[in-house]
Structure formats: structure tokens, C-alpha cells
């Protein structure tokens, strides 16, 4: 309750949820002693795979006994998820104390909630100068509150695709502009670029960062992986190859993210041994990223069938998700709820190998599209129904032995699923 009251006060500091500018957070961080310049950080930018890449990196670092601070967004179930220090989430009382301290220093100056939370993270992170900080940059990075560092250890560029187009002028809603927003201000250090959906996107990234003096590592040019039938995958870069166990997370795209994490840590030369990588990738946290629900209220409704929740919400995410679905030899049923500002038709166009689609309302989000309107958007599909809630949707689907049920379309929807469960 105390945390919610503090966050409510934060919301009153600025009329907009997002206001793309670095002026306010730079001014506050100046009052805080410029904490962002006292930390060692790995910055992660991109559209899809940021959190998964961070979690893979984090798991390997922990296995090598590194202490980490982790800042991600949005949170799935509770805001504490965004504030990890010394490998532990802050407790409610610790987080409340931190937010109130920075709130007092801010002196009621206009600033968005996300900017306040970012400043709070930097302020606390500076207390651990030897820790490695894993920072997820939101939206377009160039004017994102996380993009205020003077230096970092590395910048990871995950898969980039079209998303959040409503924040760009109509004539700039292109992949070229999105790549520019995300990569044109990367720091001069090390840049690791993950596998991209198209050669056009990779070429665009290379062109945009061509004048950046960083050491650069690109998927396929400098590191790669292959999957072996005997339940392992093989990673390779200029330092040599690694035979690795399959990770504890599912989906082909996770191997891409894990390979990017490995490439980053090997590039940094920080005493990460092969065994740290081998053990770390079997201990990755994967909240709402192809996460299998194995027990709980909703799991009981599907009985012995597999229930998976995934927060993908854009074209690139849909493509990666359906690569996983197409690898399964079973009937797939999909429940989808989405936010109003997404490209709904492009998202659903990848779901051409599923037995049924059920649209639902995301009851916790006023900016979501209604399930009924989403069904109309999905008219290109022949097998779409609408149900007002997730529970009703599950009950309406005739699951046979061996069928899989996937709930997807939004991280906010995924949070609702986990809360209901």
C-alpha cells in the first residue's frame, strides 16, 4: 500500500506517461551526484529479446559468482522486479525507502514515472561500484531515461522490428528510423548485435553504427550457434567452440538470445569459464517469455495439457513465437489479448498453424483493445471466437490429449494470467 501511494505521487509530477527527453532525468541525477557515471553497465537495446538476453547474461554471471544489479521494464507482477541489487530484488520496505529518498531530492520537479524509477535505480546502483549492471533500455533508446551513461562495458543490440510506431511521425514509421533511434547514440565501447529478422535490418544496423569506434561483434559474422539432435547446441565464435546443454527455457529464439549473451561475456574477458556458461544457461529465469505454467488455478482448467504464457506483442515477437509453435507436432490453441496501439493484423498473420484463436479483454488495462474489436481485426483468420475473460476462454476450448494452450499478445495480459493463476 505504501509503495502504491508513492507511485501515485510520482504520477502527479508530470501530465504525460512518456515524454521523450533526457533533460529532466539528467537534472535529477545531477542533484543525486551523477550516479549513472559511477557504475559498470551492460546496456541492452532492441525490440524483442531484451529481457531474455539480460536473464541469460545474469544467470551466467551469477554462476561465475559476480554480483549484479538489474533494471528491466515493464514489470510483470510487481514493481520490485525492476530493482535487483546484489542479485536480490528489493523488499517492499527497501524499495519504498529508496523511492521516498529520491522523491525528496527531486523537490516536486516535473518528471515522468519512468524517469523517476530510472533515477532511483542509478542512485542505488552507485552504492555498488564493483557490481555489473544489466540495463534494459525502453522504447527507442535515443531519448530513453536509461540512455544517460557517459560510458559502459558494452551495448547489446537485440532483434529490432517495428513496434511503438505511434511515437514516430507518419513519414518515419520505418525500420530505418527505428534502427536509428535505437542505435545511433550507442556509446563507444563494445557493441554486440544479435540475429536480426532480415538481412535488411542487419545491414541497416551496420550502416547506422559504421562511424561508432566501438569493437563490434555481429551474429553470423563473428558468432553463431547450431542445434544438434542429441539434445545439445553448439556455440562458436573467434575464441573457439562450446558444446552446451539445451537451456531450461523453450523456443528457438532463446538460443539466439543466449548466444548473444555468451558472445558479450566472452568479448569482455572477465573470467567467465566454460563451465559457468554450461551451468548458467540451465538456470535462466523466464517470466512471461514462453513460460510454462505447471501448477495453479488456470493450470487446473487445462488438466494434463501444456499451458504456456508469452508476452510477445509485435510482428517480430509473433514470428519468433510461431517458429516455436511450428516445431510442435500437436494441436495448438491460442488465447490473445492486446494493447490498442499494436499492429494487430500483422501480429496475427503469423498464426497460420493453429487449431483455434480466442480473443479476450485485458481487464486491467484501459489502453487495451477490446476482445470483440480484436476479433474483427482478426477476420483474416477462419477460426476466431471471443470470450470476455481468460478463464471463460480456457473453458470454451475443447482440448484433447496432447493439445497445447498458449496465452499471448501482451506483457500486461501475461501479468493478468500469472495473477489469476
What would you say this structure looks like, in words?
- α12 links the parallel β14 and β15.
- The mean pLDDT is 94.
- With 421 residues, this protein is an alpha/beta fold.
- The relative contact order is 0.12.
- It is built from 15 helices and 17 strands.
- It has two domains: 2-280, UDP-N-acetylmuramoyl-L-alanine:D-glutamate ligase; 291-420, Protein-Tyrosine Phosphatase, Chain A, CATH 3.90.190.
- The strands form four sheets. It has a six-stranded parallel beta sheet with strand order 2-5-1-6-7-8, with helices on both faces.
- The longest helix has 17 residues, at 252-268.
Provide key terms for this protein:
six-stranded mixed β-sheet, 36% helix, alpha/beta, 15 helices, 17 strands, UDP-N-acetylmuramoyl-L-alanine:D-glutamate ligase, six-stranded parallel β-sheet, 421 residues, globular, Protein-Tyrosine Phosphatase, Chain A
Amino acid at each position: 500500500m505504501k509503495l502504491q501511494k508513492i507511485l501515485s505521487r510520482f504520477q502527479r509530477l508530470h501530465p504525460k506517461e512518456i515524454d521523450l527527453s533526457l533533460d529532466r532525468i539528467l537534472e535529477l541525477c545531477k542533484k543525486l551526484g551523477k550516479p549513472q557515471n559511477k557504475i559498470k553497465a551492460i546496456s541492452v537495446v532492441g525490440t524483442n529479446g531484451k529481457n531474455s538476453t539480460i536473464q541469460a547474461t545474469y544467470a551466467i554471471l551469477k554462476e561465475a559468482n559476480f554480483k549484479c544489479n538489474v533494471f528491466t521494464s515493464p514489470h510483470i507482477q510487481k514493481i520490485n522486479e525492476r530493482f535487483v541489487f546484489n542479485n536480490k530484488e528489493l523488499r517492499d520496505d527497501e524499495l519504498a525507502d529508496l523511492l521516498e529518498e529520491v522523491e525528496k531530492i527531486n523537490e516536486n520537479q516535473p518528471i515522468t514515472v519512468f524517469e523517476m524509477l530510472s533515477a532511483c535505480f542509478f542512485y542505488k546502483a552507485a552504492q555498488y561500484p564493483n557490481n555489473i549492471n544489466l540495463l534494459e533500455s525502453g522504447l527507442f533508446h535515443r531519448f530513453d531515461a536509461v540512455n544517460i551513461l557517459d560510458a559502459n562495458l558494452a551495448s547489446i543490440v537485440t532483434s529490432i522490428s517495428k513496434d511503438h510506431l505511434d511515437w514516430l511521425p507518419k513519414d518515419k514509421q520505418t525500420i530505418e528510423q527505428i534502427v536509428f533511434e535505437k542505435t545511433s547514440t550507442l556509446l563507444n565501447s563494445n557493441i554486440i548485435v544479435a540475429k536480426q529478422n532480415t538481412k535488411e535490418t542487419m545491414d541497416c544496423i551496420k550502416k547506422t553504427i559504421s562511424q561508432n569506434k566501438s569493437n563490434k561483434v555481429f551474429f553470423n559474422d563473428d558468432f553463431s550457434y547450431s542445434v544438434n539432435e542429441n539434445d545439445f547446441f553448439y556455440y562458436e565464435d573467434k575464441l573457439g567452440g562450446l558444446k552446451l546443454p539445451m537451456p531450461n527455457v523453450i523456443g528457438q529464439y532463446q538460443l539466439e538470445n543466449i548466444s548473444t549473451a555468451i558472445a558479450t561475456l566472452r568479448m569482455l574477458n572477465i573470467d567467465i569459464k566454460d563451465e559457468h556458461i554450461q551451468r548458467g544457461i540451465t538456470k535462466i529465469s523466464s517470466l512471461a517469455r514462453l513460460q510454462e505454467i505447471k501448477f495453479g488455478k488456470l493450470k487446473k482448467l487445462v488438466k494434463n495439457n501444456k499451458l504456456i504464457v508469452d508476452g510477445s506483442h509485435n510482428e517480430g515477437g509473433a514470428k519468433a513465437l510461431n517458429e516455436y509453435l511450428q516445431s510442435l507436432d500437436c494441436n495448438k490453441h491460442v488465447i490473445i489479448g492486446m494493447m490498442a496501439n499494436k499492429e494487430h493484423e500483422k501480429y496475427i498473420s503469423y498464426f497460420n498453424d493453429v487449431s483455434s484463436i480466442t480473443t479476450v479483454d485485458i481487464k486491467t488495462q484501459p489502453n487495451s483493445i477490446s476482445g470483440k474489436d480484436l476479433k474483427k481485426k482478426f477476420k483474416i483468420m477462419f477460426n476466431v471466437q471471443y470470450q470476455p475473460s481468460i478463464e471463460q476462454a480456457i473453458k470454451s476450448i475443447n482440448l484433447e490429449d496432447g493439445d497445447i494452450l498458449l496465452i499471448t499478445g501482451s506483457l500486461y495480459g501475461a501479468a493478468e494470467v500469472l495473477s489469476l493463476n
